[in-house]
Amino acid sequence: MVGVGLRSPHIHQILSEQPDIGWLEIHSENYFTVNSPARQQLRAAASHYPISCHGIGMSLGSADALDKQHLSQLKQLVEEINPIAVSDHLSWSSVDGQYFNDLLPLPYTEEALAHFCHKVELVQDFLGRQLLVENPSSYLSFNHSTIPEWEFLRAVQQRTGCGLLFDLNNIYVSSFNHGFDCQTYLDAIDPRTVKEIHLAGFTVKQFEQGEIWIDTHSKPVSEPVWQLYRQWVRQHFTALGGVPTLIEWDLDIPELGVLLGEADKAQQIIAQEASDGISAA
């Protein structure tokens, strides 16, 4: 099942034309106001499509306490929409209540792991449901980190029982920025814990100090990321069935047809690998 993000330039077209889309993802915080036009549009969309609530505001890795108002608004939204998934990020974005417009990397230490797991458990208890945690893209790392990211993420899942939102583009981007092997990351994750997959495009930036890749969600999915996705589907689809896949596109948003074309590519990969798996069996 392949979906696309529900973004403001496409809402009216999606509601009026009801194209063949497997599901829609929203950024939860955009729909917190109960009687807003956006919430009304979401209700209309939810009557036709499964919805996934993807958050960017929990700041789970921050030393700040969880924002009770934020959690209450999220719970109300979740109870009304009954989404297929609720997710947020392996990151932090606040200090002393001051929020930054970014998802910042954690130091991968035992102390940070215990703290992050405690936050995830609090959220799951409050919502009364499983949370999905997404692996980040990152552009710096901490010298005192002692745990590889893939082991840290795996430990979060094992300790809390959360699910994983596996972003293959983030793995590819971070593998270049930090010099690790994508295959090492993929091999470390139990596929049974992956409940959603994200695919997106990235931007290459050149600086005097060198090249960096940035997860901008502003381009089509790159061919290497398609290959990672094909590999993942080939290895795990037959055994586990389909995992919801999302095409993310948040900047320089194109016409809806472009997103649907990307979603169709993912659907074709699923169909091909499923067919090959059946034939092999």
From TrEMBL:
InterPro entries, sorted: MbnB/TglH/ChrH (IPR007801), Xyl_isomerase-like_sf (IPR036237)
Signal peptide: none
Pfam families: MbnB_TglH_ChrH
PANTHER family membership: UPF0276 PROTEIN HI_1600
Similarity section: Belongs to the UPF0276 family.
Protein name (record): UPF0276 protein RJ45_21000
Organism listed in the record: Photobacterium gaetbulicola
